[in-house]
Amino acid sequence: MSSRHLKQYSFLPLLLLIFLLGLRTAEACSCARSPTVLDEYNHSDVVVIVSAVSVEKAAPEQTAAPGYMSNGENYVDGVKSTSMRVEQVFKGPLKVGDEMIFVQGGGADCIWTFDKNAIGKKFLFYVDRLKGSTRWMAVTCGRSSRLDLAGDDLLYRLIKQMGSGVKKVRTPPVQIEATHNLYGVELKFPFPFCKKTP
Fold first, then answer.
1. Are 88 and 76 in contact (CB under 8 A)?
2. 3-class DSSP state for residue 159?
3. pLDDT digits (tens, 9 = 90+) for 159-169
4. What is the residue extent of each domain of the chain?
């Protein structure tokens, strides 16, 4: 290679070094494939629909900067915890009206983070109580979600609830469009033609 070519590309190692020094470590939650509704139900101690009623705010000096995750000494969105009221129990010892206090996630630790905009919203949570604590933790890797996004889970619960009271008619399959309002969520789905048994 001629000296002219060497001079022309001699800045590349310096440019690469500047680029590498400017990189920051990225941290993020990484989840495996989402479990089925039945698997998540079987592996959870409690399955509930809850409504967020309040958030416990952190002091300004304990609030993580916007866009940053918690470092263990501060809180994402300035929230320490979120108080939820149980509206429906599918599994577990809780009763409608019970209060659940959820810890605030750190932003990249796969634990739900809440803010003041969560107040009044409903969630379907598959949860386990933190060992030795009165607080709950909802993980983002799983089927827990806002209620308006939990159509598959709610449909599964509806079918389980109907149980043996519904059986398929022994005719060629016919698909119909069905609409059902379940726990305040409008579900629209194709449904095999079925009838209630006496």
1. no
2. helix
3. 776 664 444 44
4. 37-64+74-147, 151-196
As given in the structure block, the two tokens for residue 128 are: 């386990």
Which run of H or of E encompasses 9?
helix 3-9
CATH 2.40.50.120 fits 37-64+74-147, yes or no: yes
Q: What is the pLDDT of residues 17-49, one digit of tens each?
A: 565 555 554 455 777 778 888 899 999 999 999
125-130: Cβ within 8 A, 24+ apart: 125/46, 125/47, 125/48, 125/49, 125/50, 126/40, 126/41, 126/43, 126/44, 126/46, 126/47, 127/44, 127/45, 127/46, 127/47, 127/48, 128/44, 128/45, 128/46, 129/45, 129/46, 130/103
Q: pTM, whole model, 2 decimals?
A: 0.67
